[in-house]
Amino acid sequence: MKAMVLRAPSDLVETIVDDATASAEEVLVRVTHSGVCGTDLKIYRGDIPVTYPRIMGHEMIGIVESVAADDDGAGYCVGDRVIVNPVLSCGQCFYCRVGQENLCPNGGLLGRDRDGGFSALVSAPVDAVFQLPEQISNDCAPLIQVMTTCHHAQQLAGMQAGETVVVIGLGVSGQLHVQLAKASGAAQVIGITGSAMRRSLAEQLGADQTFAPSEDVDNEIRKLTGGRGADVVIDCAGSMATLKQAIELARPGGRLLLFGIYTDEIGRLPFYQLYFKELAVTNARAAKASDYPACIDFVLDGTVDLDSMISHVLPLSQLEQAIRMLDERDDARMKVILDHT
Ligand SMILES: [Zn+2]
Ligand SMILES: [Zn+2]
To answer: Most exposed: 124, 157, 288, 294, by fewest CB within 10 Å?
Structure first.
């Protein structure tokens, strides 16, 4: 099968490899569309270690090519269009038994710990695929994987109707958080980014107010919240500076949802405010299977618009170019989708 194979950091080739095969507990999917993500960029660069050769890609949809012979209850059959949940779990360990399968230490991620979707075929556990309603377009559907991660995070943060939610960073995840916060009944959703284009997109997708970081954001948010600050601050930027800002913008008794992936080990933060405000801090790593049906419904009923977050659709063979685009600062670049057909 055709595959984009990473042979070593920054050494990506289009080549022919043996077809992916599925065991008795797996399903084989012919990948038609995939999404390129910051995690792929980090794997490509060697910042996230993997074993080589590796086929990356964890946001993918396709057509079921074959299903395990002994599986009748999967809810899909050969020829169905499906999305693959790339988060693997063992089903046996403590975490799997207590419903935290996304934290399974024996699990992993397709496209990082096992070959993923930047190829013609991918195999996945039978319970890791979800049928896609035909109303959801091929270009949009891979984004549902990203959305499940945001949805899981907001479940952990316990979003309540009537709250004021601030989202720092309005890339794809930030725009999804804006829409999901509105869907859970937030009274006000406020977005912060330096990009005018992304501010206007967030407003189009439901943000009530947006600010550039250069504005007096702290003061503006106080004005909008009776002097208190935000109930929930979601940091999608993942830097020490934005984490500090999140602590400052939250009201006493508020919550922080840390959605950027922080890799710093040392930094200056207003720890006293964290204590004095009695802030709850939530981190989210990966979605659960149960997030998929919920997110598919949100797309289907129009609660979440994925279309306006797609800026580029490229052929699979241009994966390297797509990954390099993620490395450039470009406000107009949002989600890059690869078409495998
Ligand atoms: Zn991703
Ligand atoms: Zn497990």
So the answer is: 294
134 Cα to the center of ligand 1, angstroms: 23
What topology is assigned to 2-140+306-339 in CATH? Quinone Oxidoreductase; Chain A, domain 1 (3.90.180)
Residue 147 Cα, ligand 1 centroid: separation in angstroms? Answer: 10
64 CB neighbour count, 10 Å cutoff: 19
CA–centroid distance, residue 196 to ligand 1 (Å): 24
Spell out the domain ranges in the chain. 2-140+306-339, 150-283
Q: Which ligand is nearest to the CA of 97?
A: 2
Taking the centre of ligand 1 as the mean of its atom positions, its distance from the CA of residue 323, in whole angstroms, is: 12
Considering every ligand atom, which ligand is closest to the CA of 287? 1
Cα angle for residues 190, 191, 197 (degrees, 5° grid): 140
CA of 143 to the centre of ligand 1 (A): 9
CB 230 within 8 A of CB 256: no
For the segment 288-326, what is each residue's pLDDT rounded down to a tens digit?
A: 999 999 999 999 999 999 999 999 999 999 999 999 999
pLDDT, residue 265, reads 85
**Does the predicted TM-score (pTM) go above 0.85?**
yes
Q: Which residue has the tokens 């499940």?
A: 148
pLDDT on residue 24:
87
Q: What is the pLDDT of residues 249-293, one digit of tens each?
A: 999 999 999 998 887 888 899 999 999 999 999 999 999 999 999
- Rounded CA separation 201/172 (Å): 10
Domain 150-283: give its CATH superfamily.
Answer: NAD(P)-binding Rossmann-like Domain (3.40.50.720)
Rounded distance from Cα 146 to ligand 1 centre (Å)? 6
DSSP 172-232: HHHHHHHHHHHHTT-SEEEEE-S-HHHHHHHHHTT-SEEE-TTS-HHHHHHHHTTTS-EEE
